[in-house]
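Notes taken during the Thursday session

The instructor put the following on the board and asked us to keep it in front of us for the whole hour. The protein is NifU family protein. We were told not to look anything up and to reason only from what is written here. First, the residues (200 in total):
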Amino acid sequence: MSTISIYAEASPNPESMKFVLNQQLLTDGVSVDYPNLEAAANSPLAQELFNFDYVGRVFIAQNFVTVTKTTEHQWAQLIPEIRTFLKSYVEAGGPIFTVDPAAEQKAAQTAAATGNASEQDQQTSQKIIDLLDNYVRPAVEQDGGNITFKSYNAGIVTVNLQGSCSGCPSATVTLKSGIENLLKRMVPEVTEVVAEGITV
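Then, after some discussion, the predicted structure tokens were revealed:
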């Protein structure tokens, strides 16, 4: 059995902390965001984390778990407890997911890109998904979150903010000055980017 090492890394969102493991939890490019216990039905690990009364949101990606807290507790008190829990859970071989989210996520993205859209819009949606995957995701994952494609309609791109990006004070700035500018430059049809999942 391999020894799991975990370190905590601050994110731009002061309420979110990224716990990085030396073990893969998900295939690269796949991530899941659980805004509450009900949403975490597919993840025994996330359900266990929600048992801590200060855990408000759980985001799981390739080799890290981002925990967003709900209370006034300081991270200095919470980090050792969460790190100890994650280490013992993963070392004991506890299940991360009941069903691998990779296929589910791919199907959802394809459905979002195609839907009732025209062929032109489908091509535009696919370009946007590729740009988000290749340019945006690696950067926001470093900050403990993710931005996923939700829909494209009449020049407006709707994205979902996940993990530490949801509720992050700088998320709106990143969205408008970074992502919107990138997409407008690379996909001329795009006129605006709006986000779901911003909690303030």
